[in-house]
Amino acid sequence: MDATKTTSKTIKSQFEQFFFRKEIPFGMAAVRIAISFLMLIVMGRSWRHVRELYSADGAPAPLADNFGYYHFLPTLSATWAVAFYTLMLLLLFTLMIGWKTRISAVGVLVLFTYFTLQDSLSTITKYSVISSHVFFLLSLSACGEVWSVDRFLKLKRRGIPKPLRFLSYSEKFEIWPQRLLQMFIGIVYLGAAITKMHTAPYFTGEQLRFWLLTNVNHANPVGEAMSVFPAIFVVFAYIAIIWEVLFPFIVWHRVGRWAMLGLGVTFHALTTITLGLLVFPLVCFSVYCSFLTAEDILWWRKQFSKVARKFNLSRDYFYVPRLISTGIA
């Protein structure tokens, strides 16, 4: 009985340590900057066509209509559609720089999700769905406490010198939003693997070869050249599916993290040059930033500190570990 209680307490302790341990939110801050910058570019390209794509004056194609839920979301007039779309772009920018971060994240979540749902023909894609989930988790996190205007202004009010305002450590917060984002990308990969398992042409290489020969996404001359070597598709197919299955189970370990993320970067980079995918790989790379730890940042700051000493630069701009004991951290 005592052994059972001890095991139960150990599991509970590990669970609490995994989800509720307090850390500096470097990972979520990096995700905030990367995904906001990327979506600002992607959505900004459609700003000229807001009237045609999203308003009642154009030809919107709401996703809900495909499932029989007509008028599920209100269709805005051209004036309001342009106004709210412009507001969404502004909020993406303020979220990226970390000004009024929580408000910006919630605003982006609502408006980004609305506009993507209003255009099922082009705007809503796999990467936009993933991005909506990312913005939701960012709105729940303390992503604005690091590398942000909010943090800079907070330290300014405390009278902290300017160099330390830019690169100082922040308070520690519970890590569960970052864990949920890490689990989310793992579940996405696991779901993709399960889908592939039910697709026979995937294992024969025919499905991959078909995509290599098309320019549905963007031009992919490398993929077209590879299509004359069908045997390698079978090898790649098995490597990809094994990686997707193992990712959510191995990525938590120190060595496994670098192995899984390294394979992920390689995999998505290959989809860019062979399948013509551009935005989707960058979205995945943005989510990978959630695996960034304080130890990683400390290591990089040590490297920059060495460079600073070599070129006689101010040490305060690169490495300020003493802030942890000054009350700022």
How many domain regions? 2
User: Total number of β-strand segments?
Assistant: 2
Helix content: 55-70%
Roughly how many Å apart are the termini?
43 Å
Shape label: globular
Unreliable residue stretches:
315-329
Which value, in Å, is the CA radius of gyration? 23 Å
Q: Return the average pLDDT rounded to an integer.
A: 86
Strand order of the largest sheet: 1-2
Number of helices: 16
Task: Specify the biggest β-sheet.
Answer: 2 strands, antiparallel
Strand content: under 5%
Instruction: Provide the succession of SSEs.
Output: HEHHHHHHHEHHHHHHHH
Description:
The protein is mostly helical. The chain folds into 2 domains: 25-172, no CATH class; 180-291, no CATH class. Helices cover 67% and strands 1% of the residues. It is built from 16 helices and 2 strands. The chain has helices at 2-20, 26-44, 50-54, 78-97, 101-117, 126-140, 149-157, 162-167, 176-197, 200-204, 206-212, 221-226, 231-250, 254-275, 279-288, 294-310; strands spanning 22-23, 173-174. The protein has a two-stranded antiparallel ribbon with strand order 1-2. It starts with a helix and ends in a 19-residue tail after the last helix.
